[in-house]
């Protein structure tokens, strides 16, 4: 991948993360949400866990399979404490017990992941003029190493890198970090570039 292609992927990441943050802001009915400039990197699978605090760090991961004209996977991840903050904002509460999630919390997290991923994929679809749909989201709360082993095993045979977009959302004094991991197949990467004339 040359620098121009990476710049294009970075821009797609910026737009996608911006649209996803807007969708989250609308979901949370908050005018106080601000988003920092996303950080976009192309990382080896083996480095993904370090990005989110290490292989043993407990995270919430929401995984979707990409379908349509693009094949691959997309994952949205948050550290457990960030997920609790988002739920607090959504439920308009001030809970400080971050030990466990209720069934309602889990349902809300799944829907948040669905909406964020939908907004992100919609922006890619619009930019590339390609039909991209996704599977029903699958959510897991586990150590980062365990969650990230799923795409690594599935797509390690067709590539060794993933596009990672770190976005930080600020609501009042609370900063929440979310990580989008986009893993198209190599053929799908080529399709995305071709659709943009590269």
Account of the protein in words:
By secondary structure, the chain is an alpha+beta fold. It has one domain: 3-Layer(aba) Sandwich (Chemotaxis protein chec), CATH 3.40.1550.10. The protein is built from six helices and eight strands. It has helices at residues 3-27, 48-51, 80-91, 103-128, 144-155, 186-195, and strands spanning 33-35, 39-44, 58-68, 72-79, 132-134, 138-143, 161-171, 174-184. Strands 1, 2, 3, 4, 5, 6, 7 and 8 form an eight-stranded antiparallel sheet that branches. The longest helix has 26 residues, at 103-128.
List the helices and strands and how they pair.
Blueprint (H helix, E strand, L loop, with lengths): L2 H25 L5 E3 L3 E6 L3 H4 L6 E11 L3 E8 H12 L11 H26 L3 E3 L3 E6 H12 L5 E11 L2 E11 L1 H10 L3
Antiparallel strand pairs: 1-7, 2-7, 3-4, 3-5, 3-6, 4-8, 7-8
Helix pairs in contact: 1-4
Concise synopsis of the structure shown:
The protein is an alpha+beta fold and 198 residues long. Helix content is 45%, strand content 30%. Strand 3 and strand 4 form a beta hairpin.
Features:
30% strand; 198 residues; eight-stranded antiparallel β-sheet; 6 helices; 8 strands
Question: By helix and strand content, what is the structural category?
Answer: alpha+beta
Largest sheet: 8 strands, antiparallel
Per DSSP, the total helix count is 6
Shape: globular
Average pLDDT rating: 78
Radius of gyration: 16 Å
CATH topology tier name: Chemotaxis protein chec
Span between N and C termini? 11 Å
Q: Which CATH-level-2 architecture? A: 3-Layer(aba) Sandwich
**CATH class, anyone?**
Alpha Beta
Pfam family, one: CheX
Keywords: Chemotaxis, Hydrolase
GO biological process, one term: chemotaxis
InterPro entries: CheC, CheC-like_sf, CheX-like_dom, CheZ_family_phosphatases
